């Protein structure tokens, strides 16, 4: 990819294409110890006890956003000034589920007995620190995280949302956050496991060779037939539950895909559940991108659908990894 200039159109015609089964095997390169080492270093980085709970655009209106994080019920809404506020999702009076209560003029009103919460401490209800980064909403849960708190979450570098096309996908899997992060720190599986989206994938640099804790990947995104968009993508893990892909060369330089893993709590069978919340923040200096941003309401569902197709596979990967780990059968390091 290095040194390759951009054409007038973002598409390229794939030449010398090989069948899926004839592509070069990557299993020797995808060393279990290399992936495990990157995962271990990610888990050692501070998060400040911040957890992603959803998309910024999902917080507002006459209902709060209700989530469960590591078994802790959480509600998030906006006050009269548009500021995000958050706190426990259990009413301190008699335990009503506040996620089912309405928001009126910036105040959350319990639908059981009318206890009103404006985001400040009241009647035994204590707020949680909340942060809106313009794309995602985070909540700080110190009792859950157990780390030294940070004033703000570790937000990855990304294009300015007002100049980008943003879309957020959310899915749930039976696994732990580390299984989601490990999936993202294995770029070698891309063209084998997702041939409908990725072709001609080469891992150009790893933490062993790059001089930094990152994986650099040359890959082409499939559009239709032999039409592809070749890019270089760099994967990093800035905190324990986040992996970020930055486009550093090719079309859409500066665009990011952020994958956040939020623990939810056990299911009815006692198995762990994790939410994958993935933010696509796409940018381009091409003139036509202005039209793409204007068509964002139409494009967002398409972007979410594409993310959802990939995550149907990748959650199967993460769930399989957890199933093997939990029974002592995982062959990785």
From TrEMBL:
Pfam families found in the cross-reference section: DUF5914, Rieske
PROSITE patterns (UniProt xref): RIESKE
InterPro entries linked: Cholesterol_7-desaturase, DUF5914, Rieske_2Fe-2S, Rieske_2Fe-2S_sf
Residues in Rieske domain copies: 50-139
Residue stretches spanning the membrane: none
Keyword Protein biosynthesis applies: no
The entry's keywords: 2Fe-2S, Iron, Iron-sulfur, Metal-binding, Oxidoreductase
Official protein name in the record: 2Fe-2S ferredoxin
């Amino acid at each position: 990819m290095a040194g390759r200039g951009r054409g007038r159109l973002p598409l390229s015609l794939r030449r010398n294409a090989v069948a899926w089964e004839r592509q070069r095997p990557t299993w020797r390169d995808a060393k279990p110890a290399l992936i495990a080492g990157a995962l271990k270093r990610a888990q050692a980085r501070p998060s400040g006890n911040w957890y992603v709970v959803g998309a910024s655009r999902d917080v507002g209106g006459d209902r709060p956003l209700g989530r469960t994080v590591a078994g802790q019920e959480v509600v998030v809404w906006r006050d009269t000034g548009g500021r995000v506020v958050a706190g426990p999702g259990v009413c301190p009076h008699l335990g009503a589920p506040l996620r089912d209560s309405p928001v009126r003029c910036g105040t959350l009103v319990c639908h059981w007995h009318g206890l009103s919460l404006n985001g400040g401490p009241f009647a035994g209800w204590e707020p949680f620190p909340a942060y809106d980064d313009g794309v995602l909403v985070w909540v700080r849960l110190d009792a859950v995280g157990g780390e030294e708190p940070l004033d703000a979450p570790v937000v990855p570098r990304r294009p300015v949302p007002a100049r980008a096309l943003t879309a957020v996908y959310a899915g749930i899997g039976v696994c732990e956050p580390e299984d989601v992060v490990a999936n993202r720190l294995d770029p070698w599986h891309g063209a084998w496991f997702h041939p409908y989206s990725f072709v001609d994938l080469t891992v150009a640099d790893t933490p062993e060779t790059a001089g930094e804790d990152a994986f650099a990947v040359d890959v082409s995104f499939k559009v239709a037939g032999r039409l592809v968009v070749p890019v270089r993508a760099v994967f990093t893990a800035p905190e324990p539950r986040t992996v970020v892909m930055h486009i550093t060369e090719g079309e859409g330089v500066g665009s990011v895909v952020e994958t956040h893993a939020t623990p939810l709590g056990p299911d009815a069978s006692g198995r762990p559940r994790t939410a994958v919340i993935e933010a696509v923040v796409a940018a381009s200096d091409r003139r036509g991108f202005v039209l793409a941003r204007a068509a964002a309401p139409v494009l967002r569902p398409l972007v979410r659908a594409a993310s959802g197709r990939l995550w149907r596979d990748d959650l199967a990967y993460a769930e399989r990894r957890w199933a093997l780990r939990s029974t002592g059968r995982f062959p990785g390091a």
